[in-house]
Amino acid sequence: MTLAASLQFIRELPKVELHLHLETSLRLRRLAERGRRASGPHDDSPGPSDVTEPQRIADPARFTGYDRLRRLRYLSRAGRIADEWYTPENIEQITLELLEEAALQRVRYVEVRVGGRRGFALLGADRMLGAMARARARAESRLGISSGFLVTIVRERGPEEAEQRVREAIACRDCGVVGVDLAGDEQNYPPALFARPLGLAREAGLGITVHAGEFAGPASVWTAVYHLGAQRIGHGIRAADDSELLTRLRERGVTLELCPTSNLHLGLCASMGALPLRRLLDAGVSVTVNSDDPMLLGTDLSRELHAVATTFSLGAAEVTRLVTNAARAAFAPVPALP
Ligand SMILES: [Zn+2]
């Protein structure tokens, strides 16, 4: 039996992360807290104390499936943070903090997703992405961490907003945008709605990743790959229910971005051991492990890799393979991993 890779080995391993959302990182709340402390006790502007504990909102007895995710994310992100907090300086700061934390974990390359409607609406895409680009440049020169940005399209906001986001993403490629991510309610919004915007992104040379096979079954993954041209699938765990699909994913080199703790918290699998990781690996599918919403979930990339290593008895070579899969599937060139 293989000895599972140790947490220390994983911490020291140079890593790549492909699935990480900026706006659920809670860092805007942290900034707001700092601002309130600095401005003293008489400041009565809306602040983080108004935000209910996200765990209570996500109570599984009250919400299930995607509704649960929506509740959790709404309250954890900037739901009640005042509009004034959306400044280019603050966006630059939260992006920089995210990249600093990644660098501390020896992440060499990370793709950060951004799709928060308020940020884009209040600042405009160019100022929002421009602020993130400044953080990207600072992190690269100071800490040696490379990064790319994915603009997230949320299904329930409809195809028009999707197209607008894609056009903005294409226009902001100089800011470090390397791809687009389709997210949101995969059960109630058919992929055909988004074929045109994602086609535009593909033609412009942006990478395509689609959240699928998370709340819906294998059919959602089939359409993401064959109708939307996804090169990567966010989560995709339900693909394991369909052996023909696994063969196609392997043949086409489609990569799955697994986020184990996220799936566990949302009740998509009963335990870490119930994740179909072994089945996916045995089928030869390109699998990666990611943290999704690390602050919200109380995790990070090293802990995610360690959790799957211990649960599935993955040795150092297999864990390293998960990381090299991520490097190969990145939408921009990744610096050589030693
Ligand atoms: Zn996600």
How far apart the termini lie comes to 27 Å
What are the low-pLDDT stretches, counting only 5+ consecutive residues below 50?
Answer: 41-58
In percent, how much strand structure appears in the residues? 5-15%
Q: Any idea what the radius of gyration is?
A: 19 Å
- So, the CATH homologous superfamily? Metal-dependent hydrolases
State the CATH class.
Answer: Alpha Beta
CATH topology: TIM Barrel
Per DSSP, the total helix count is: 16
- What is the spatial order of strands in the main beta sheet? 1-2-3-4-5-6-7-8
> Hetero groups bound?
zinc ion
Describe the structure.
It is a single chain. By secondary structure, the chain is α/β, with parallel strands linked by helices. The chain has a single domain (7-329), classed as Metal-dependent hydrolases (TIM Barrel). 48% of the residues lie in helices and 14% in strands. The chain is built from 16 helices and eight strands. It has helices at residues 7-12, 27-39, 54-57, 65-76, 88-104, 117-123, 125-143, 158-171, 195-203, 218-226, 243-252, 260-265, 277-282, 294-297, 301-312, 316-329; strands spanning 15-21, 107-114, 146-154, 177-183, 207-212, 232-235, 255-258, 286-289. The protein has an eight-stranded parallel sheet. Strand 6 (232-235), helix 11 and strand 7 (255-258) form a beta-alpha-beta unit. Helix 8 (158-171) runs parallel beside helix 9 (195-203). The chain is globular and about 50 Å long. The two termini are 27 Å apart. The model is unreliable at 41-58 (pLDDT under 50). The protein binds zinc ion (ZN). Zinc ion (ZN) binds at residues 19, 21, 211, 234, 292.
